[in-house]
Structure formats: C-alpha cells, structure tokens
Write a structure and sequence with these properties.
The protein has two helices and nine strands, in the order E-H-E-E-E-E-H-E-E-E-E. Helix 1 runs antiparallel to helix 2.
Length: 124
C-alpha cells in the first residue's frame, strides 16, 4: 500500500546521526543523500525519507502520528532503542517491553520530535 514515509527535519546532519545509528541497529544500512538533498533509508522493502520542508517553514512532528519499524528480534529492538537514545532521541512511553500479543516494542522521539516505534512481530 505505501511506497514510502517522508518526514521533515530542521537539521539533516543531526537526523543522519540518529537514523544511521537506529537503522544499523536494526540490521539496515546508513542513509544516502539523494540529488535533491533528502536522506533515504531503504530496509526490507520499506523506505524512509527525511527532508527539510520544501515550503521553507520549520519541520514539525505529526501530532498523533507514529512510524513503526519491524525488528527481527528483541535484541534488535533493544539495540535500536539504545542507539536512538544515544544519538539525540528521547525514550518515551513505557520502557521496551513485551505486549500482550507477544510483540516486543520500544518507543522513541527522534531529534525533531517524530514518534517512532520498533517492534517484533506479534506471536499470539
């Protein structure tokens, strides 16, 4: 259904440090800058793109929005959470935990305030 997710940033180098750390913790690769100056992360068929807003106004986080990323294991979720917190992210909600459906999840806000989650597949 989705081809990609695009979010705004007010500081692409700060975003690069955060997302390079979190994507490599999930087994992905560091992002690449395209010819238009957007950071692009491809991982397991999904694409996350980060750009400064084209209207020249400051980037803001979506109120009520969450971007979810799949993780292969609980260890990947924990590594993602640790890498994000160490690279300008903010731990939010509960500590990394197993949910009633068996999924192991963690939540962060990136340096621009976007809400993210990494999670394993539900087992129940």
């Amino acid at each position: 259904m989705f081809t990609h997710v695009m979010i705004g940033s007010n500081d692409l180098e700060r975003s690069r440090r955060f997302y390079d750390a979190t994507f490599t913790a999930l087994g992905g690769k560091p992002g690449e800058m395209d010819a238009r100056g957007r950071l692009i992360y491809d991982h397991e068929g999904g694409r996350l793109m980060i750009t400064t807003p084209i209207d020249g106004k400051p980037a803001t986080a979506a109120n009520g929005g969450t971007i979810g990323m799949g993780a292969a294991s609980e260890a990947h979720v924990l590594a993602w959470h640790s890498a994000g917190a160490a690279h300008g992210g903010t731990a939010i909600e509960t500590p990394p935990t197993e949910r009633p459906n068996g999924a192991f999840v963690a939540y962060l806000r990136d340096p621009d305030g976007n809400k993210l989650t990494a999670r394993t597949k539900a087992v129940r």
